[in-house]
Amino acid sequence: MMTYIVFILSVIFVIGFVGFSSKPSPIYGGLVLIVSGGVGCGIIMNFGGSFLGLMVFLIYLGGMLVVFGYTTAMATEQYPEVWVSNATVMGVFLLGLLMEVMLVLYVLKSEEVGVVFKFSSVGDWAIYDIGNSGVFSEEIMGVAALYRYGAWVVVVTGWSLLVGVLVILEVTRGD
Amino acid sequence: MNPLILTIILMTVFLGTMIVMASSHWLMIWIGFEMNLLAIIPILMKKYNPRAMEASTKYFLTQATASMLLMMAIIINLMHSGQWTITKVFNPTASIIMTLALAMKLGLTPFHFWVPEVTQGISLTSGLILLTWQKLAPMSILYQISPSINLNILLTMAVLSILVGGWGGLNQTQLRKIMAYSSIAHMGWMTAILVYNPTLTMLNMLIYIMMTLTMFMLFIHSSSTTTLSLSHTWNKAPLITTLILITLLSMGGLPPLSGFMPKWMIIQELTKNSSIILPTLMAIMALLNLYFYTRLTYSTSLTMFPSTNNMKMKWQFETKQITLLPPLIIASSLLLPLTPMLSILD
Question: Would you list the domain boundaries of chain A?
Fold first, then answer.
C-alpha cells in the first residue's frame, strides 16, 4: 500500500472536492475542505515537501479556514443542508463519485497513470535546478526561487489579495 | 465610493488588462484576467439596487466560468507542449477550449446572453467601461493565438454574433441594451477576420472603441437611458442631437464616415481569401444593425418626437463637461480618408 499512497491520497483529495462542490451548507463544505487540506498536505509530504505541508496546515487550515468557519457560523441557518437533504445535492455528489470511481478503475486497469498525469517533453517539473546538492532540500530552494525569480508574481498576487479585501469591503458596504 | 478606494480599484482594472496584454507566461495572463474581474465588480455595483447586484453577479459568474475554461485549456496545452510561453497553442483541444473561453469573455454567440442583461443593470459609466475596456484583454489573447484557432468554430460564432446582434437589437428601446447588442455584432465582425488578417481585428477594435466611447459620452451628457429621453435632447442641447446622428450612422458602417473603414477592409480581406458568400451575408446582416441605429436617429435628430408640452420648454441648467468629446467625434466620423495609412501597419 505504501507504494500507492500518493494515488490513494489523491483519490481521497478528489472525493473531498466532489463533496464540497455538490454544495451542501458551507459548514459542511468547510469540514470537507479540512479533510482535503490535510490529505493534500500528505501528498506534498510524500514528495519531500514537509515545509509546504506545514504551511498548508498552519496558514490555510489554521488561518483562513478558521476565519471562514467563524463567519459561516455567524451567518448559518437553522437547518443547514447536508448531502442527503435534497435530491440535487445528493445527485451531484453521487455523480461526482461515480465519475471518480470510473476514472480510478480506468487508471488501475490500464496500468498507466498517463491519462491524469503526463507531461510530454519536459521530464521533470523543475526548471530552477539546485544541481543535486545533498545539503539543501528542493522545496526550500523552490520557496527561495519564488522570492527571487518570481518576485513579480509575488507582487502581483500580493496586490490582488489587497484589492480582493478592498473589493469585498466595498461590495458588502451596501450603503 | 471613497476616492482612494476608487483610484485603487480603477488602477487594478487597468493593471489587470495590462498584465494580460504584456505577459508571456500563461499563468500570469490568467492572473491578469482574474484581477481585472475582481476589481471591476465594485465598479459595476456602484448603485446599490438589486438590478445592479444581479448584473454584477451574472457578470462574475460568466467571466469566472470563462477563466476556468481558460485555465483548463492552459493546462492541456502545458501537458502536450511542456512549456508555458504564449505562442501557438499546439493541441487542437486546448485551442478550441481557449477559443470558447475567450468568446465567453467577449460575449460572442452562443455566449452572448449576459451582455444585454449586465449592461442594462448598471449605470452608464460602468457600462462604458464594460463594453470598451473589458474587450481589450480577451481580444489581445485571441490576437496572439490566432494562428492556431479552429476556423470553423470562430467563423460560426462570428456570423451568429452578427445575426444575434442585429436581430436582438431590433425591438429595444433601452439605450444600454441597444449598445450591448451593437457590441455583440461588432465583436462578431472583429472575430470573423481574426484568422485571415489579425491587424484588421485591431483596427476594428480601435474604431469600435472610439465610436462606443462617443456614444456613451453623449448618452451620459444628456443623462438618457431610453429612446424617449434621448428624443428630448433637441431641447436640451441641439448640438448633441447632430453628433448623435453622425456617430450612429458611423456605427452603422456608412461611408463616408469612419465606421465604414473596418467593414470595408474586412470584406475586402475576406474576398481576397476566396470567400464570397460569407462577407455578403455579413454585410446584409449589418443592415439590421443599421436599421435600429437609424430608428434612433429618426426619433432623436430627424424629427421632433411627440412629447408633452412641458418637455418642450426645459430649464437650461449648467451643462455637464464631457471629457474629450471633440477628438472623439472627429475620430469616430472623419477617419475614412486615412485608410491608405493602413499600409504602415504590420
Answer: 2-111, 138-174
